[in-house]
Structures are given as structure tokens and as C-alpha cells.
Amino acid sequence: MTGIPAEFTPDPELLRERVILVTGATGGIGAVAAREFARHGASVILLARNLRRVEALYDEIERAGGPTPAIYPMNLEGATEKDYADLADNVEREFGRLDGLLHAAAMLGAPTVFAQSDSETWYRVHQVNLHAPYLLTRACLPLLAQAEAGSLVFVVDDKPGAYWDAYQVSKRALGAMANLLAAEYEGSGLRVNCFDPGQTRTGLQVRAFPAADNDSLPPPEAHARALLYLFDPALELHGALLRGEPD
Fold first, then answer.
1. How many Å apart are CA 147 and CA 127, to the nearest integer?
2. What separation in angstroms does the CA of 16 have from each of 59, 90, 113, 227, 233?
3. How far apart are CA 21 and CA 34, in angstroms?
4. Confidence at residue 230, expressed as pLDDT on a 0 to 100 scale
5. What residues does each domain of the chain span?
6. pLDDT of residue 164
């Protein structure tokens, strides 16, 4: 587990002229990342399935004076291999580059006793949490590999113990995929890392622990500095698991 250097203070133009794609852009971590990336100069591609919410985020970023973002509506549950290839082609055509990719989208499913789990939920959760990041990353790797100081970040979540079913398995597999990519791109210009925000007051956290004191947890905004650190063009961190350090 790696921490954020105490001396890291993001420059207001840290991400100027960079293009970053964020999945799950309307979720807790994804929305904070999108706002912060834009606030620090990046052109952000907002990938989410809820068009109304992503349009609201688009307007918010524009009102704040950030570079005009792009909206890419996509339902990861039903997206095909061709959909991801088309996305990468559209990014190259519209922007000519891709400097970063943050996989923040996630599906909790219905955590239960393994023997009582159902295959439909298992497939849906793995589709969003594992297969979608695989297909999207593979489609975008040619662009990311061309970037000067590219960043590929997977949001992971280690839920220890029993009853987490497909969520736990898919998230641990996602971390294994990130480690594989980090090993393959060692020494290149592409940095591959994982980010574990820990317990945070997000919608997924509330669904996972509806009876817990979620109001006492840090909000997603507490991880803004960590997210900026992971996408800093000067970052040397590679193949690491960074945990958020709420202020």
C-alpha cells in the first residue's frame, strides 16, 4: 500500500492540455475525479449511462470555467467489443490523443452467501467490474501508449470476509489485471496503478452497508488530492496500490 507524498501540492494547471477518460463519471469517485481533472486543466471525457446526470455534470464543469468536456453515454452492462473499439476511434478522431483513463465505474450486485448466489447477477457484476475495464483498456492502449506520461488507474475495493460474492471476486480480479498490465508496461511511458479509496460516503457504500453510520465517513471529495496525484504527468509511481488519505 502506497501513500501520497506529504509534499504533493497540485499546480492549478497540473493537467493542462491533457485528455482523460473517466468511467462511472456520475458516481461518487468518478464525479469528483472529473471535476478535479477539469479544474486543473484537462479535457475530460465523461462516460456514464445516465444521460441526465452526465449532462448536469457537463454543465457544472463548464460553469466552473474548465475546458469543455465530452459526453460519452454508455451502459457497460450491454456494451460490446465493437462499442469499445468505436469509442477509442472516436477519441482519436475528436482529440487525437488520450493521456489518461480512470476506471471508476462499479456495480455492487447483491452480496449473498455463495451457495445462494444467482448466475445472472454474477455475470452482470463481472461485466461491469471486470469485462468492461478489460475491453475498454485494450481498445485504448494504443492511444495511451503513445501519450507522454500516460496514466491508467483502476479503482479497486478489497472487501474481506464472506458474502461479497461477485463483487469481491470481480474487484480482486481487476487488481490482478492491473498488476499484469503494470508488469507488461514496466519501463514505458505508461504508468499503471490501482486506487483504493477505502470506506467513503458513496452510493455504493450506502447500498453495501445500509445500516452503518455512513454519514460519519469521508465524502468522495476527500480523495481529490490522491486522484490528481495519480494523473500527475510527473508521476513516477507504477504498479502500486495507493490508498486515499482523507483530509
1. 28
2. 20, 21, 47, 15, 10
3. 9
4. 98
5. 19-243
6. 87
Active-site residue set: 167
Exposure string (b/e) for 75-107, b if CB count within 10 Å is 16 or more? ebeebeeebbeebbeebeeeeebbbbbbbbbbb
**Superfamily for domain range 19-243:** NAD(P)-binding Rossmann-like Domain (3.40.50.720)
- How far are the Cα atoms of 1, 80, 106 from residue 239, in angstroms, in the given order? 11, 28, 21
Distance CA 212, CA 223 (A): 21
Provide the pLDDT for residue 246: 58
Closest CA to 69 of 46, 36, 40: 46
The model's pTM? 0.96
Q: How confident is the model at residue 93 (pLDDT cuts 50, 70, 90)?
A: very high
**Per-residue model confidence as pLDDT tens digits over 161-206:** 888 899 999 999 999 999 999 999 999 999 999 999 998 898 888 8
- Percent of the residues in the chain that have a pLDDT greater than 90, as a whole number: 84
pLDDT band at 100 (very low <50, low <70, confident <90, very high): very high
